[in-house]
Design a protein that fits this description.
This protein has nine helices and 30 strands. It is of the alpha+beta class and about 475 residues long. The strands form seven sheets. The protein has a six-stranded mixed β-sheet, sandwiched between helices. Strands 13-12-11-14-20 form a five-stranded antiparallel β-sheet. Strand 12 and strand 13 form a beta hairpin. The chain is globular, with a radius of gyration of 28 Å. The relative contact order is 0.08.
Length: about 475
């Protein structure tokens, strides 16, 4: 009974953090449970922490804090060779001077297993990857797909409980990649062991996975089955990263009624009237009709044939709407657009407002942005005033401790502008994320003091651009943190 209980959850990550010596946090508060036999994919852009997490699972890297449990036992500091876990790398790491048999048998020979046992295990592993009879072949004579299978055979010959795959299809061409996606899925089912797969390719994740873990900036954004991730994204990042999406700023105007792109739509999400939202509409859920029948009207500005469908761009006012349809539309034609209620996914907007927290200096000034923003803090506290010796007191004459004060600066993303002139602005930083929202881009700028600020801009900047933020003083409201 005890073994059955342990076998259900094979691997658990608990409050995992990984911070490097330069202060960069690659993985933050990572919590995940993986069941035995699952195919789990870590999906996200480069630098999101997925490979670092995989390395910690393998034992090649140690977490700064947190725990990793295998079958309920703490393996956080266990060396790689003592873990029943094997890794397949993107470049396969095969030995070019050894033939296929010796490549696959390498780990077994290190364990000093009897020769007869090694021959039996290698033969079985090669059968599992459909390469039996290739024992004497040289690595250089194999295709990319075959080399990948040898790398997998070398890993599974050790009979691991978990197989880690770090972007193993990245070196293959598109056709081979698609073939190997299906082959890996079939191999997972035949082996019956747990696969943890790392990729930035959404199609790979959707094709192969039982569970997808979407990551950004070292944090889990959403975990779920491929269908749930695609149809019910939890935030704008997930909606933008998984599949093609139209994302629009909007507002709830009634029960299951939403307004975006200048029109009212019925939806299936019952969110409180007046709530600022992000409306996600997949391109395949937009129906083109005649102008008079559409909920909104627009003009076709671009048509691209994608093989199984046409990708059609429609401009409606300032909003750009992407449509996927098996029927071709004529460029320049005026059209109507319809979206059924089930085709609209509503998310409460995470980017409606910036709320930035600032500590207070000894002279009762704001420490954020190098003190470049002035604020009359005494005006935020009923009855507070400054004494002649520069001490702030409350309504009863008691001295107020500046060190315990926090001020919240509130500013709308649309009131902030960006410049590439470093002499402008009150803050500077790098663009770490961007999402297109129909008529503008929503950017996240991480400032030099590690503050994340959301900016709406109609112009396209690039990821990683170093920009100055121009924030008008009269557009900021101040409040004291309670």
């Amino acid at each position: 009974m005890e073994n059955k209980i342990k076998s259900e959850n094979i691997l658990e990550f608990k409050n995992l953090y990984r911070t490097f010596e330069d202060g960069f946090t690659a993985v933050e508060d990572f919590n995940l449970t993986i069941k035995r036999g699952e195919f789990v994919t870590f999906l996200g852009p480069s630098g999101c922490g997925k490979t670092t997490t995989l390395r910690m699972a393998a034992g090649f890297d140690l977490p700064t804090s947190g725990k990793i449990l295998l079958n309920g036992m703490d393996i956080t500091k266990l060396p790689p060779n003592e873990r029943p876990i094997n890794t397949v790398f993107q470049r396969y790491a095969l030995f070019p001077h050894l033939n296929i048999y010796d490549n696959v048998a390498f780990g077994l020979k290190l364990k000093k297993l009897p020769k007869e046992q090694i021959i039996k295990k290698v033969k079985k592993a090669l059968e599992m990857v459909d390469l039996e009879g290739f024992e004497s072949r040289k690595i250089q004579t194999l295709s990319g797909g075959q080399q990948q299978r040898i790398a997998i055979a070398r890993a599974i010959v050790n009979e691991p409980e978990i197989l880690l795959l770090d972007e193993p299809l990245g070196a293959l061409d598109l056709k081979m990649r698609k073939e190997m996606q299906l082959e890996l899925k079939n191999m997972h089912e035949r082996l019956g062991i747990t696969f943890i797969y790392v990729t930035h390719d959404q199609e790979e994740a959707l094709t192969m996975s039982d569970k997808i873990v979407v990551m950004s900036e070292g944090k889990i954004q959403q975990t779920g089955a491929p269908e749930d991730i695609y149809n019910e994204p939890k935030n704008a990042f997930v909606a933008d990263f998984i599949g093609d999406s139209n994302i629009f700023n909007g507002i709830m105007t009634g029960r299951c009624q939403v307004r975006f792109c200048g029109a009212e739509f019925q939806c299936v999400d019952d969110i409180e009237h007046g709530t600022m939202i992000d409306a996600v509409v997949r391109p395949e859920d937009v129906i083109i009709t005649s102008p008079e029948k559409g909920i909104i009207r627009g003009r076709v500005t671009n048509v691209i044939f994608k093989g199984v469908h046409y990708e059609i761009t429609v401009m409606s006012g300032k909003n750009e709407i992407i449509v996927q349809s098996t029927k071709k539309a004529e460029q320049g034609a005026e059209v109507g657009l319809i979206v059924e209620p089930e085709g609209i996914h509503i998310m409460v907007s995470e980017t409606a407002i910036n709320k930035i927290e600032s500590s207070v200096s000894q002279s009762y000034g704001l420490l954020i942005f190098d003190g470049s923003i002035e604020c009359d803090i005494a005006s935020l506290i009923p009855g507070a005033k400054m004494t002649g010796d520069n001490i702030m007191t409350d309504a009863h004459g008691n001295e107020l401790d500046y060190d315990k004060m926090k001020v919240i600066l509130t500013i709308s993303p649309k009131d902030i502008s960006m410049s590439d002139d470093e002499k402008e602005g009150i803050a500077k930083g790098h663009i770490i994320n961007l999402i297109y929202k129909g008529d503008h881009y929503s950017y996240v700028v991480r400032t030099d003091d590690e503050t994340d600020i959301i900016v709406d801009d109609e112009y396209l900047w690039n990821m990683g651009d170093y920009v100055s933020l121009i924030i008008p003083r009269d557009k900021i409201s101040f409040s004291l943190k309670k």
